[in-house]
Amino acid sequence: MAELPEVVDVVIAGGGVMGASAAFHLAEAGVSVLLVEKSELASGSTSKAAGGVRANFSDELNIAMGARSLDLLADFNNRPGQEIDLHRPGYLFALTTPEDVATFERSTELHHKFGVESRMLTPQEALELSPLLNIDDVLAASFTPNDGHCTPESVVMGYASGARRHGATVLTNTELTGITLSGNEITGVTTSAGNVRTSAVINCAGAWSPTVGAMVGLDLPVVPYRRELLITEPLSDDFADLPANMAFTIDYSTSLYWHREGKGLLMGFSDKTVAPGFDFSRDPQFPEKLAELAYERAPRLLDVGVGSGWSGLYEVTPDHNAILGEWGNVSRFLYATGFSGHGFLQGPAIGEILRDLYLGKQPFVDISPLSADRFSSGGELRPESNIV
Questions:
Q1: What's the rounded mean pLDDT across residues 347-369?
Q2: Are residues 38 and 183 in the same domain?
Q3: CB within 8 A of 354, min separation 6: which ones?
Q4: Residue 216 resides in a domain
Q5: Domain-embedded: residue 343
């Protein structure tokens, strides 16, 4: 295990996709970096993600960051250099109300504005891309053919390994316990492994980010909610009609989703009845709840056995959009949190943005509307509609 450095330019709290991506992009730019993760890399929300990567959003910033991340993931084998099992069969949202159709028609226009390939489909066209879909009451579907899914842990390990190659120190089982200030300037941090002198901290602690924010007096309205998913047993010959590139499919009205995962399927939904909290326990009723949704939208899913599954945390904000930026009250305290379920897919772009913010450069997109200030100073909330 690497030794704790005495001094670094930047300390990053959190070893999920945000922290690892930031560490890589900063280290690649010649910045000395220490990343501390209180458990193992990707052990928080990242490793529990469904792996979806997309630009199919309703908010312009999310579209831009999703599209940029897709470009970076497509080149991941070369930079930083890691196999991530990227599949791009597209994202398909099945829509069952006129209001939802109108929402995605507006989103499609925005997609085209940002150069994202996107189109609305008839129910029959949707069925051809996702043969498990029951289209009896489907009015239309939204399809972005360049979206898909990959392996979250591999993305984190690739970025962490790349960061180390560029000189960063990445420490697991090491917790950030305090931030030392002189006036409004950061002078160091305290960790469970010792003290480090630094003038900058980046909060990438996900569902635990409010604790880090509180160290400098910043209130981050991030609330954890448990989300769960299942992996099925290998598909039998009865499912030979399913294309290998079957679209990542979401029933928009219920959030039921599924995509190919190895020889089986990965499926889940967002259970809105779950109370907030750091509860990682498996819901014994989850398979039954999932089956009720599948019975209506994809009844053939009921014929597949359950193999494994897990639960994780969404880090949710009041408008289901990220909190991203640099705090004005304490010099060089940056934050990237509250991604509300679409953090993994935006991680590559967020690493670039944090690098540029630290270096004083203009990021590829104006992220000022995502500042934490929007919740405390009467700023404008940015509700994201295309959430799962």
A1: 97
A2: yes
A3: 18, 21, 22, 25, 26, 202, 334, 336
A4: yes
A5: yes
